[in-house]
Amino acid sequence: MNQKRKETAVVFRQEQLAEGIYDMWIETGLAMQAKAGQFISVYTQDKSTLLPRPISICEVDKENNRLRIVYRVVGKGTTEFAAYRAGSKIEILGTLGNGFPVEEVAGKRVFLMGGGIGIPPMLETAKQLCGKSAETNIIVGYRNDELFLKKDLEKYGKVYIATEDGSAGTKGNVMNAIEENGLEADVILACGPMPMLRAIKKYAEEHNITAYISLEERMACGVGACLGCVVKTKEKDHHSHVNNARICTDGPVYLASEVEI
């Protein structure tokens, strides 16, 4: 059973993967319950910054009780995290969210799709799906040729690259890469910026494909209390009794057909 708890963990190691992109392994007992597509909230040591930062779980090492996060430095909190070194104490809350339904898509042809900082959670998803799907094609979109996590992803499926500037793979976005390579799937699992997820939802509807999308959203509490990260849904939320769902607790993964984005 997934039980949320706050704990002081320890940084095992950290390195920079690309401009503004950092890769951190954390030693924590939360690794034992972590699932592909879940996230953790990371607290800053600077007490003037009250709210934790939600960061997707990139990889899980249950044998050594470690979680991997790959994140982009965008503000005060993540700038602090980037300065951490091996042995640094790090306060985290986890594990949060529902994760991807890996078992449900076993035996099917799967697209794993990630864009930008939505790429990291696709690594553990690919790892969990390895050997279970009929075919796994991993389609990832980058700004330029700094292809972080590409080699890691290649261990678990055929990787197709799209870059905004055309410096590697297909010039354009992940949808352009699908078209250029004539790829087909029965199921899509995706995480990335909202324009990418809207395009995937439309593509899935047009091709009668089941799509699960992980919504990236700025979260405050991370536990569903503040209603600061809601998405419009077909069904009424049992908590607020309106057509909204809380991404941090009901998500972040949803059937694309069930949410309005």
Notable traits:
6 helices, 7-stranded mixed beta sheet, 17 strands, alpha/beta, 18% helix, globular, 7-stranded antiparallel beta sheet, 261 residues
Description of the structure:
The chain has a 7-stranded antiparallel β-sheet. By secondary structure, the chain is α/β, with parallel strands linked by helices. The longest helix has 14 residues, at 194-207. Helices cover 18% and strands 36% of the residues. It contains 6 helices and 17 strands.
Distance between the termini: 30 Å
Total number of strands? 17
Mean pLDDT: 89
**What is the H/E order?**
EEEEEEHEEHEHEEHEHEEEHEE
Specify the overall morphology: globular
| Uncertain segments | 219-228
The percent range for helix content is 10-25%
Q: In order across it, which strands form the biggest sheet?
A: 4-3-7-1-2-6-5
**Rg computed from alpha carbons, rounded to a whole number of angstroms:** 18 Å
Class from helix and strand fractions: alpha/beta
For the largest beta-sheet, the strand count, sense and barrel status come to: 7 strands, antiparallel
* Tally of helical segments: 6
Strand content: 35-45%
